[in-house]
Design goal:
Elements: H1 3-12, H2 18-21, E1 23-24, E2 31-32, H3 39-48, E3 52-56, E4 63-68, E5 93-94, H4 100-108, E6 114-120, H5 141-147, H6 154-158, E7 180-188, H7 189-197
The structure holds adenosine-5'-diphosphate.
Domain CBS: 22-83
Keywords: CBS domain, Membrane, Repeat, Transmembrane, Transmembrane helix
Subcellular location: Membrane
Length: 204
Amino acid sequence: TDEVTMIHGVLELREKVVADVLTPLEDVFMLSLDHPLDQSTMSLILSRGHSRIPVYDGDRSNIVGMLLVKRLIAVNPADARPIRSISLHPLPAVEPTHDLFSTLNEFQQGRSHMAVVREEIPTFAPAPSSPTLDQSQHPFAEARAALKGGRVTKWARALPPDDDLQHPLLESPPSPSRHWGRVLGIVTLEDVIEELIKEEIEDE
Ligand code: ADP
């Protein structure tokens, strides 16, 4: 990467959005809350090589937190403890339309280098909290609040008709439980930095 390429990368960061760089949900290596941390799971985790593993409850789109692989150093596989017995790291949510420049700043503020990418349904009702995350507490709450303001985006129309989430304009009154749309995948700091330097980062 030379300097001119990087400068282009920096300038383009405001135009690009999370949807351009996310890892799709079907490609995400994740584990269930009930999964035992036994020898075979440890081997599986090791072979995948990721340092962060989203953890779901029941359904893969119901992500409740993230397992930091470094925490497993202290876990004895012979005990085969379920993942729910380990303290999980909270995973913030970000909309697919969020720009990469803001996303980089939020990652830089710490707390999490990974976020879940969720569609957000514009609603006329006050924003309810998600069933699994305290939205007012999470690191992206402020950015998300700034993004609100009735902007109806392309993805709202792209929802499949049989999806149990409906466009709020078709519903009256809007149901608070339908505020969040589908989970599309995950995004990490590395995904954003690769756009910045315009090159793949080789893992060590
Ligand atoms: P790691 O080095 O732990 O894999 P990075 O944050 O460096 O994580 O991300 C490298 C790439 O792998 C990124 O494209 C990111 O979206 C993807 N990634 C990170 N964690 C996972 C995971 N658990 N499952 C699938 N892809 C992942």
